[in-house]
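Deliverable D2.4 — example input (structure tokens):
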């Protein structure tokens, strides 16, 4: 075996653990402030309008909480959105093929 083949095999073995590293940790974004004077219904309506306008599907809805799903080609992302009259908080739920 030539030294080049041996060197390539050694480098491939050294690089193998690095290619199997875990995905980067996801961090939920900071809460977003809601302008003063908006009702819960208005906040919910604006969130849903923004989601639908960007291709998201509102999966579940409860007072102060919306679950949304995005299907993009073979990728799927799911988020939970919690809100009140003062803040909106986005949380990663799950994903497929991302």
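Example output (designed residues):
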């Amino acid at each position: 075996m030539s030294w080049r083949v041996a060197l390539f095999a050694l480098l491939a073995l050294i690089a193998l653990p690095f290619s199997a590293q875990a995905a980067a940790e996801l961090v939920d974004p900071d809460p977003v402030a809601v302008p003063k004077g908006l009702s819960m219904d208005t906040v919910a309506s604006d969130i849903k309008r923004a989601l639908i306008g960007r291709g998201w599907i509102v999966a579940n809805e409860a007072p102060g909480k919306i679950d949304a799903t995005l299907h993009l080609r073979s990728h799927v992302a799911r988020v939970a959105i919690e809100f009140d009259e003062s803040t909106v908080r986005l949380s990663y739920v799950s994903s497929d093929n991302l």
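The longest helix spans residues 3-19.
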